Amino acid sequence: MSDCTTVTALATYRNDTPYPFCPGCGHHAILEQLNAALTSLRVDPAKVVLVSDIGCSGLSDQYFVTSAFHGLHGRSITYATGIKLARPDLTVIVIMGDGGTGIGGAHLLNAARRNIGLTVLVFNNFNFGMTGGQHSTTTPTGAFTSTTPGGNLERPLDICATVAANGAGYVWRGTSFDRDLAGRIVEAVRADCFALLDIWELCTAYYVPKNRASKKTLTTILDEAGLKAGLLHRAEFPEYATAYRLAAQAQRGRPLPAPRPITPRFASPLDRPFRLVVAGSAGGKVRSAAHLVGEAALLSGLWAAQRDDYPITVMTGHSIAEIVLSPREIDYTAITRPDVMILLSREGASKVGHHLAAMTPHDHVFALPDVAGVETRAAIHVIDPAEGSRRPGTGSLALYCIARALKEVGVFPIEALEAAATLQASEHAEESANAIRAAVGAK
Amino acid sequence: MREFTDGTTAIVRGALDAGCTFFAGYPITPASPILMQMMRDLPKVDGVAVQGEDEIASIGMCIGATLAGARAMTATSGPGLSLYSENIGLAIIGEVPLVIVDVQRLAPATGGATTVGQGDVQFARWGTAGGYPIIALAPSSVSECYSLTRRAFDLAERFRCPVFLLTDKELNMTTTTVDVDTYEKPSVRERAILPPRELPYRYVPADETPRLAQYGGEGAVRFTGSTHDERAIITKAPAKVAQLNEHLRAKIEDHAAEIALVVQDRQPGATTLFISYGITAGGMREAVARVRDAGTAVSALTIQSLWPVPECAIHAALAGITRVVVAELNHGQYRREIERLAGGIEVVGLHRVDGELIAPEAFMEAVR
User: Which of B303, B299, B366, B367 is nearest to B338 (CA)?
Assistant: First the structure.
């Protein structure tokens, strides 16, 4: 649980400012019970953060001497989560209305699911008291509010069942009139888990007059909705902020990825930018083969840029890599007219029509036999992978074709590509190197 | 010493070197690689990285964590920035240091998730209620991704406000050669923490940024997103509210010169000035070299600090110029800022909104 055993305990955690709530409003009683709970917990007020949501209950933090965070509507649980994750030793108590469980429903659900160590007090008075008594997620069916003038058609959210079903560690329901509320808050804080107390109360400004509600009808509402009160749920899941730190311990101090410098070992005859497009299909290792071209360029003292295009469904469709190589720093990384195009599949070819149209008779297309019939003014060279002594596997076909093409074009020594392949920290290093050797050996 | 790397890696490295200890984000193309790298690397430096249930939760967690002593960053793209909107306002009024990376993509809504755009420039500035200033930096290369991320963390502490790093799909996901030795490493200041029991806010002098009161120390600390007095108690008192709001404006706008970051590339005799930022400045640099190689004088201004507008630097760049070409991957969002400063000088826009970059040839054709 949170470190609640500090010496700076106070006789009261209230400041001198009187509460601002309407006569008969339940907030007053709940906050007095919260004060009693804090007093009983003997916690350092600086180490308690009251995170208040929006609505009349959102004013609550201002009447306490503890630390406080008053943010946006429905988001209180997100701020509380951030606070708890950064400082798991703090006692973090969220005060939200029933309105907050609607607009912040996703946060409520996910905080419960994580079992992050927050104590959430829901000041549940079945309507929006601050903005004019509109209906909320917990308004009983048939109840009258300013936005359900004919009676509420919706069914109320069972907050407790929802968070209990989704991983909360402690769930209690009661009313602002319950004498043991302070004790329950203490219990919830000490449970060191996602703890939620659904506290039913009266909004005397709006809900009471419209529905003739009273202390007694709170029980009737419970019964009519088929809801139970009391301690409804306990579960023992690891508290998230602590669990995160435990899990992270194994990572602590591990080295961060350092720059991977590549020192030139080869020389390149290239005296102007060279633009290469490789067009293939998903699963064809187009991008990784292109990356080796970039590294080979660096090994040859060149600058490189690689820009990939592929559909978001990464295992289907095209995979295009555009590579610019240059003896100088590359400022513009896109390609308007490729010097060389490598066509590996129909899917790839179908995406590079604009490039093929821009190419001139000085440019070269290297294509596998089934895609060699494309329309372009560039010179087309057919690569038949079957003609070499060692036919490359599908996983290294892209690299094989790139090696065949670059051997012809001569932008850098083909040994640089082999060196780049050998340097990669991958189980494919040997296969890649073999594919390049096969390409070098081919006619 | 050169490496073959991308903007994502540079941003993550910059953040870690700047002392980032908290990251929360939600998967979105093309910002997800930042989330994945932070999830992998932050635990190694005793930090915390979380995938939130949505963008709202992610930025909310960052704000909460910052108040509890963390140095936080989040990263998203356009649709996620839309969801950040209300919390950007909270970070402004509560004076929360926070770095927000927006890896821009094309068009509204889901738009072009995997295509480049620069359409969030005005959105970053005006994307929350109230109209109060933020700071936005725009790297134009992978090495600037590193240095400006560091700078963003420094400015976030200096001015206690959201600082945007506006990048884009191409910058983050294109792998390029970078000379590791040329990475600039701007210093990143430590957080100035308010001593216990002092008032958490201060509005006078208006332009001064007070130290941050954070949770977990000896005294209780209050924070609020409502208009508040120096104790963080909600107030509507006009005099106090006016002080607060003037402070939120002045602490950034009155220090615009301190924030201003540009690359001036002036050539004597040039009458055409190219202005650009982000990935588009790369094409501009190549065009400048080629125009000059062809014997024509041209000047260029790369704006690295988009907000607040570096007005002095822009005025300086405009001296002797008769034609300004503002290039950006939108319909002319930053051109509006240049036009209001140009004082009658011809300003033309060079735009592209089809998911492709503006080629050097397009700049070259715009020279008169």
Answer: B303
Q: Is A86 within a domain?
A: yes
Count of the separate structural domains present in chain A: 2
Query: How many residues comprise chain A?
Result: 443
User: In the structure encoding, which two tokens stand for residue A6, read together?
Assistant: 């500090």
What was the pLDDT predicted at A6? 45
Domain-located, residue A6: no
Sort out which chain A residues have CB atoms less than 8 A from B236's CB and list them. Answer: none
pLDDT tens track for A317-354: 999 999 999 999 999 999 999 999 999 999 999 999 99
Residue A217 in contact with partner chain B when CB distance is under 8 A = no
Rg (CA), chain A: 34
Residues on chain A touching B181 (C-beta within 8 angstroms): none
**Are the beta carbons of A81 and B170 separated by less than 8 Å?**
no
Residues A232 and A367 in one domain: no
Do A410 and A304 share a structural domain? Answer: yes
Does A166 contact chain B (CB < 8 Å)?
no
One domain, residues A238 and A342: no
Distance CA A32, CA A411 (A): 79
Partners of B23 in the β-ladder: B49, B73
A327 within a domain of the structure (yes/no): yes
B93 touches chain A (CB under 8 A): no
DSSP string, A29-76: HHHHHHHHHHHHHT--GGGEEEEE-SSGGGGGGGGBSSEEEE--TT-H
Chain A residue nearest residue B233, CA to CA = A62
- Is A21 domain-assigned? no
State how far the Cα of B214 lies from the Cα of A40, in Å rounded to an integer.
Answer: 25
- Domain extent at residue A413: 274-441
In order of their start, the domains of chain B are 2-182 (3.40.50.970), 262-365 (3.40.50.920)
0.95 exceeded by the pTM? yes
Distance from CA of B280 to the nearest CA of A (A): 8
Nearest CA-CA distance, residue B48 and chain A, Å: 7
Alpha helices in A129-201 (DSSP H): 159-165, 181-190
Per-residue pLDDT of B85-137, as tens digits, reads: 999 999 999 999 999 999 999 999 999 999 999 999 999 999 999 999 999 99
DSSP labels, A304-326: EEEEEE--SSTTSSEEEEEEEEE
CB distance from B186 to chain A under 8 Å?
no
**Hey, is the C-beta of B233 within 8 angstroms of any chain A C-beta?**
yes
Q: Where are the alpha helices (DSSP H) in A251-310?
A: 286-299
Q: Which stretches of chain A drop beneath a pLDDT of 50?
A: 1-6
Proportion of chain B in helix, strand, coil states, percent, rounded to 5? 40, 20, 40
Based on the fold, state whether residues A417 and A345 are members of the same structural domain.
yes
